[in-house]
Amino acid sequence: MKKVKIAIVVALTLSLNAFSQENVDVARQIAELKAEFQNKINALTAKLEAQEEKIDKKISESPTDGVKIAFSKGIERLKFKNDIRLRFERRHRYDDGRRDERDRFRYRLRIGAEYKASDDLMFGVRLASGGGGETSTNESANLDKDGIYIDKAYVKYTGLKNSTAIAGKMGNPFNKNKMIFDTDYTPEGIAYVYKQGIFKATAGAFIFGSEDSHYGNDDPNSENEVMYGLQLQIKAMKNLKLGASYYHFNNEVEHASGGNQIGVDMHIAELYADLKVNDNFSLYAKGIQNMALSGSEGSQDSRVDPNDKNDLGYEAGLKFKKGKFKGGYTYRHLESDACWNALNDSDFGDNRKGHIITLAYKVNNNFSIGLTQFFTDEIDTAAGNDERDEQLTQIDAKFKF
């Protein structure tokens, strides 16, 4: 009996060992299968990732995406410069003992952009409100729909050393002188600016129109009306600028408004000086003369004495800044034949002398308010008429966006 029990125990032990061994084999097989499956998953994931990289590369090299990339870079080269000015204007005029008064609400809208095609080539365009005249982009309040005009359309090239060349309808490249050019005047033609150290030279040729198209002249040999200008400027000291200019109109200029310059040549010489006393205060003086009028030739303006040439203009003034305030004062004397009244400051006019006071406050970088006040008198008065005095008040609110 004892032998039988021992045999049973031995048999059971062997069976358990076999079962345990079998379980071990099964677990090992499961682990092997799991590892093999994971390896296949990893391999498949790697193939998918490689395929995605190929697809992304093909998309990035496709023509459509290339256009998108170029457009994105082009946006970075495009800059906008826009502004709107709201104005209340009151003009008092004392004429022949009679007081005339006119109030106007006006606005000016300008929308401009510049595109830098390369490091030395730029294109620019600006649209503006107004009636399309030479010296104003103001629009007076009324019931009519208002128009938008091309105020600038130009190409600028800076690839030449120390030089800038401009062609098209551009901002005035010359040092600003309101006795000759209104600040809203944007000439059409070509200009060249050279800067080297303390020296600056500006040359330009600007077209006003053809004689036959503007004045009913059917002569096929009539010339275009062109102004040629040359301006030289130096920095005599660190803060002093001295300049001289000459503007030659190649044909007798005429302008219907104002009554002056009927058949009068315009060969205008200019001298100017600008002294920057410090960062907040500066002084300036300017003088012009129409050299086309000879010593024996008098004025052709019906408003003045025909024995006088009336060919001089001069002004002097100051500018200041204090915190968010800035302002200035100018005394100006501008005779009737010293300038072409189609182009000079339309607010001041010609055959006038007087004072201009300005004051402005900068609310923030995009908004400012300002006041400009003119007190002017006639220089010469037509026979039989009283002297015409005038006061002009302009209150502005300017927004940049």
Helix amount: 10-25%
Termini Cα gap: 112 Å
Anisotropy-based shape = elongated
**Quick one: how many beta strands?**
17
**How many strands, what sense, and barrel or not for the largest sheet?**
16 strands, antiparallel, barrel
Strand order of the largest sheet: 1-2-3-5-6-7-8-9-10-11-12-13-14-15-16-17
Rg computed from alpha carbons, rounded to a whole number of angstroms: 40 Å
Strand content: over 45%
- Specify the number of helices: 3
Mean pLDDT: 83
* SSE string, helices as H and strands as E: HHEEEEEEEEHEEEEEEEEE
* Secondary-structure class: alpha+beta
Regions with little confidence, pLDDT below 50 for 5+ residues: 64-69, 255-262
Description:
The protein is about 20% helix and about 45% strand. With about 400 residues, the chain is α+β, with helices and mostly antiparallel strands.
